[in-house]
Design a protein that fits this description.
The protein is α/β, with parallel strands linked by helices and 256 residues long. It is built from 8 helices and 8 strands. Helix 2 packs across helix 3 and helix 4 packs antiparallel against helix 7.
Amino acid sequence: MAEVASADGAPIYYEHHLPEGEPRTTVVFSCAYCTTHENWRGQVSPLVAAGHAVVLWDLRGHGRSASPDDASAFSMDRVVEDLAAVATVTSPTRPVVAAGLSFGGLASLHFTERHPERVEALVLIGTGPGFKNPEAAAGWAAQVERTARFLETRGFEDFVNGRAGTTCIGKRPELPAARAAAAAIIAQAVPGVARFGREVSGKAPPVIDALGGMDVPALVVVGEEDKPFRRAAEVMAAKLPQARHVVIPEAGHILN
């Protein structure tokens, strides 16, 4: 458990889990909007046991990372800088596996576009490359705005325990991993997450035109029941040069 200063000085929370001996790879897991590093807890032990280093971190405004008051501190450029700072401090001499779910997958794609030398592979889970179509982009921004307003009026506890719960802790809230993820989500401060939604997630530029240049192994995973991202997964798998496309039966959005 530690913090690293991003390019603008914002403290970013991360955890660096190491195997015995030299790691085979370093896997950096980036989170979905509204969630925290705790959502990836279940992936730590199996990967470390297999000889990989595992890095969990919180997006700015989320979890234990800084939540600047200034809206100008929130942008996709800042998120890429945050991810770069985490990757550099945990794997200074070797590229990393950039893994992410939902927004975390899009952030991993932006990171790969801007720092291709820092990425040896991609794991893209329940995510997409953003929206080129103006109407689709506007629809997404409106959805994010509705989420931000819900959080500001009802709070995270109602968010997690309501209809949105499946988008942040999965279909089986009774599982210990889901309960731990829910507790960490509920503990967050609303203003930073809402600001992140409006300034970053809702305005995220697409990277679809850059996919063909991301010539690294890419695992594209989507839940069978995650309808909003089924088509996005197919598009990414078709455009990424070294993609493997996997659909998980009976799984939803938070399939990990």
